[in-house]
Design brief:
Layout lengths: L2 H23 L10 H18 L4 H7 L2 H4 L9 H22 L2 H24 L3 H7 L2 H16 L6 H31 L6 H29 L3
Helix pairs in contact: 1-2, 1-5, 2-5, 2-8, 5-6, 5-7, 6-10, 8-9, 9-10
Main location: membrane
Organism: Uria aalge
Membrane topology: Multi-pass membrane protein
Length: about 230
């Protein structure tokens, strides 16, 4: 087993244990006790988002490693490969958790999303290439922090609070910057570097972007409608 795969397995086990322990660490409020699994699941997702979301701001990353902006295939900062492997472990854990605890018609979108991420990130972990590209993709986790906080506040029945309103505004702002703009930049990078990327990898990346972009636009519309135009 390669170190990357061992790290994926260790991450999977760690997030699994965290998921089991969270009900004691963060007891669900009365409004969330009917769906204890969902409460644990969201807190686990928040824990993962906080990891890459706060892992050295990306402007600093690009300043310290200027080669990354030109070469996202072979260039990446120290620790980036481990971070991507840990994320693969989390997405695998979340995939299994949803598969075991939620009906398929309720979770198929996220299961589909996780499948795409696991395949794309898995290639980076196994080949030790495109790690920089995967690291840019992890920018979306900055927004995921506020996206998961929104779900926690909803489950805690704190919709009509200043905290929820403030989080909604930050959530929408970071969504545009760290999800929509990041995916657009990644799609542009793929197009401009299509001659430097092997056809099979280019196909996987292009399909991934083609799936993720409309999914994120639809989710943005749902958030906008729910929090601002309801």
């Amino acid at each position: 087993f390669s170190p990357g795969l061992l790290l994926v397995a260790g991450s999977f086990a760690a997030f699994r244990l965290l998921n089991r322990a969270l009900e004691r660490l963060v007891p669900p409020p009365p409004s969330a006790r009917r769906n204890r699994w969902k409460w644990r699941n969201i807190w686990t997702s928040l824990a993962h988002s906080a990891l890459p979301g706060t892992h050295s701001p990306f402007p600093c990353r690009f300043c310290l490693h200027p080669g990354m902006s030109e070469d996202l295939v072979g260039t990446h900062p120290p620790g980036a490969h481990s971070l991507v492997a840990v994320s693969v472990g989390y997405f695998l854990e979340d995939f299994v958790d949803m598969l075991c605890n939620q009906k398929l018609h309720q979770s198929w979108e996220l299961l589909f999303h996780h499948s795409v991420v696991i395949v794309c990130f898995g290639i980076a972990v196994l080949l030790h290439q495109y790690v920089g590209f995967a690291l840019v993709a992890l920018l979306v986790e900055i927004n995921s922090i506020f996206l998961h906080l929104r779900q926690i506040l909803l489950m805690a029945n704190l919709v009509h609070t200043t905290c929820y309103r403030l989080n909604s505004i930050i959530n929408l702002g970071t969504y545009v910057v760290f999800r929509i703009a990041t995916l657009a930049w990644m799609t542009r990078w793929l197009f401009l570097n299509r001659e430097n990327v092997p056809p099979a990898t280019y196909a996987v990346g292009t399909v991934g972007m083609a799936i993720m972009t409309p999914m994120n636009i639809i989710l943005f519309y749902r958030l906008l409608r729910s929090d601002f135009f309801k």
